[in-house]
Amino acid sequence: MRSRLNGFMREARMAPRSQRTDKFGNRLLDAMAPKALDRIRRHLETVVLEVNQAIHQPGEIAKDVFFPTQGLISIVTTMSDGASVEIGMVGKEGVFSVSAILGDDRPPQNAMVQLPGRAFRMPSQLLRQEAQADTALQAQLLRYVQAKLSMAGQAAACNRLHTLEQRCARWLLSAHDRAEGDSFPMTHEFMSMMLGVRRAGVTVAAQGLQSRALITYHRGTMSILDREGLEASSCECYHAIQAEFSRLLGWEGRTGRAPGTR
């Protein structure tokens, strides 16, 4: 895999810039200006993301950033009694971690792989150095940080003001955006941790969505049957988050997916 990546990068460097049509599959990387991408690509390494893999532990130095091309990384806060709740997610739309972009190499949260896939990895320090040398790249990364902060703020309001079924629908839509298809591995136990509620509550909410033929769940696999119906069952927060990413980064279509994809 590493040799294929090196070959891909070597060919891209040799090709005239006007002829380069290569895409990484990560929207943040693919949106970078050619000059910035030329400098960054030599630092990128392909890695596999495995389910439940720990990307970061609180207090540890986050030496690397990850640009997922497939899969989903969850950022989780754990309380002193062991209770956990997801406070953010990163898929093919962005990078882990925002803290590294801002100069903090010891973020206090856990980061773990929720959906398997692949990512490009590079040292955090090198990404900051490239951003400091390129004001346009720095501005792009900071707009992404602002989008993630807006996402966290909207989710906090959602958790306080909207029903569990609405929140469950919003979360499933966000996971679906970052999944490779309409079916993906998921358990009620994991969803309860992500939503910060008891498993029984998630089961009731999921059953409500399933009774209307919006989703189906069987043996650890979640399937989205009616995307439009699921969006109608969600609250305003899902679309508010999409609108903010579009406003700040100019991305059309759902976060994590190219325009026109299901």
Record keyword descriptors for this entry.
Jelly Rolls, globular, 3-stranded antiparallel β-sheet, disordered N terminus, 262 residues, 2 domains, Arc Repressor Mutant, subunit A, alpha+beta, 5-stranded antiparallel β-sheet
Protein described:
- This protein has two domains: 2-123, Jelly Rolls (Sandwich); 157-249, Winged helix-like DNA-binding domain superfamily/Winged helix DNA-binding domain (Arc Repressor Mutant, subunit A).
- It is built from eleven helices and eight strands.
- The protein has helices at 2-14, 27-30, 34-41, 98-101, 124-133, 135-161, 164-178, 188-195, 199-211, 227-233, 237-249, and strands spanning 45-49, 54-56, 64-78, 84-90, 110-123, 183-185, 215-218, 221-224.
- The longest helix has 27 residues, at 135-161.
- Residues 1-21 have low confidence and may be disordered.
